[in-house]
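User: For my dataset I need records formatted as: sequence, then structure tokens, nothing else. Please produce one.
Assistant:
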Amino acid sequence: MMNHTLKNRFRIQPGTVIEGKWHKNQYTILKELGNGANGIVYLARHQNRHIALKISENGMSITSEVNVLKSFAKVQGSTLGPSLIDVDDWKSRQGIVSFYAMEYISGTDFLSFIEKNGKEWTVVLVIQLLNDLERLHQRGWIFGDLKPENLIVTGPPTRIRCIDVGGTTIRGRAIKEFTEFYDRGYWGLGSRKAEPAYDIFAVGMVLINSAYPKRFHKQTGGMPQLIEAIRQKPELRRLEPVLVKAFQGQYASAKEMRQDLISSATTSSQPVKRQDQKPIHQPELKKAVPLNGKLRSDRYAKKKKKKGGLIETLLILAAMGIFYFLYISGKIF
């Protein structure tokens, strides 16, 4: 939860100009974007463009988050988090506080995007997310506080991005920030050790949340309650094998879950074939025409086809004969 003392101390009014102590860059505060356990994020203007500026009295937290953003920058092709612009201190009336400026990611939050554009986008975006998480994990970081509130969909082209790296933790340590609904420890399904399986569990809960926008409270907890929730929603039911593996910690990497999710989505997009249904690509056979009160046999059908072919051949030969006669008589060419 947010430290209210911190929020009260640094409730910066729109129009306030923050100048860095060391780099002398100036940022004009426009409005508050959000707050968390370790600081407040503001929308600000810098050199005629919008940026996001995070202020915190916890210098160690700022340093950690800056290191995460620098690590993101080294992951080629990754667009998981915002790009880092500046790191500095601000001499406020309350004293020296640390801040960093980062790219302002404009877009629609994850759940609102799904509601507006359709649930078929859910798996597409989660597949993108898993791809970026895999790269992050390979760099030795675990995202930690993964939830829809921290996910923004930008575009075109449509892309999922993260707007808060405050919970990102070095692999092997204890998760430093989490939200109960997405936390495997809350559900009694694992520890809060920073490892890929922790993020993968949260991805599964993001999928659950997409089907239950208002979420739900823990009752029995554990797998029974989550499986019951899965089976009550058609869009989750088809992903049950993937979700169960994610919740039980059976994926060693985000890449593995991504591959299974792609396979599951591909399979579920095909029309379901019933046992009494003819193959999709098999053309429908014409009904047989009755002959003397009985259906024509296959042999009769073959004879008819053969007879038709013979007549066609004779007609072609006749046409060629007429053409040849006209040619030698000089009536053509």
